[in-house]
């Protein structure tokens, strides 16, 4: 029989959000160090984040240097004093290596590796009238109890165009991929035709990565390519737009406000400049206002039919079409949902102002925040601060 261990706070997931929360908590309550356990199957902090940035060869972050996990908003700037070339214009965007080194410094400074349990949580049972604690089952069979749980896995469903399930011909698995499954480092693309569907920043990174490997790249978007510095207007960082968001009590309308604020994927001016230059050089073809209707794998390549009748050929087809969260995407919410049914909007749970599941002390970090009145484009600090207000 496996022994049962206990902690006051269980954090499931050691990504950016989990890291930010733990740093904020320990900065204010250093004595909580032995009360926190962090569960991460990869066994190290930021493993998924690092892998994704490396796979897409992302040179720097999109957010300015004040958006980072450390409680001190100026900590990254001080850390970067000897590395000014790794802060990119126009708003000192931290380079990927700089940001990762900074996070590892913060992890070491707070001795956070000691909090990691290198196992996956495969089952989560909520408290009941008889059992007041959450019950966690790990992949190795070990049992844990926790008074409070923060779910920071950010599991999502990949968004795939509706015509993909209707592809009638068999094709090699590596010739159709979501952007999350593409690792540029492992690919030799010289002379290949790569078709990328999507208008967000991931599509730009993949296009440049394929181009640098001497592929012939076609980048397709269903509308014009949107050029924006950030995911949403900077007014969402403060009261300019949040005032109306706070005042809106209709959850469906609140959801629409978030969608309108983000307005789909967008490319930064710097990325758009690189893509247009590559287009002038004949290395990349940009196709805005192009809706794919169907795809067919024939004679070892893709044939894509556009809404306007145009045919596009390619050897590889990549979808940079994003992901979405629903309760169904996170299996650890199944028993919680059964015990404490939650109202939802478009699959998103309606949480309280602390990002707490109503009825128990389960807190969600990641995509579910969308229905809560927090800054739309500053989640790295906003989510943990909201939860910390309740936990402290």
Give the strand content. 15-25%
Mean pLDDT comes to 91
CATH class membership of the largest domain: Alpha Beta
Spatial extent as radius of gyration? 22 Å
CATH topology of the largest domain: FAD/NAD(P)-binding domain
- Strand tally is 21
Query: How many structural domains?
Result: 2
**Helical run tally:** 10
Apparent shape? globular
Low-confidence stretches: none
Account of the protein in words:
With about 400 residues, the chain is of the alpha/beta class. It folds into 2 domains: about 5-155 and about 325-390, FAD/NAD(P)-binding domain (3-Layer(bba) Sandwich), CATH 3.50.50; about 170-230 and about 265-325, FAD/NAD(P)-binding domain, CATH 3.50.50. The chain has 10 helices and 21 strands. It has helices at about 15-30, 45-55, 75-80, 95-110, 200-210, 240-245, 250-260, 270-280, 335-340, 380-390; strands at about 5-10, 35-40, 85-90, 95, 115, 120-125, 135-140, 145-150, 155-160, 175-180, 195, 215-220, 285, 290-300, 300-305, 310-315, 315-320, 325, 345, 350, 360-365. Strands 1, 2, 5, 6, 7, 8 and 21 form a 7-stranded mixed beta sheet that branches. The protein has a 5-stranded parallel beta sheet with strand order 10-17-11-12-13. Strand 19 and strand 20 form a beta hairpin. Helix 1 (about 15-30) crosses helix 10 (about 380-390) and helix 5 packs parallel to helix 8 (about 270-280). It is globular, with a radius of gyration of 22 Å. It starts with a strand and ends with a helix.
Provide tags for this entry.
2 domains, five-stranded parallel beta sheet, seven-stranded mixed beta sheet, 21 strands, 392 residues, FAD/NAD(P)-binding domain, 27% helix, globular, alpha/beta
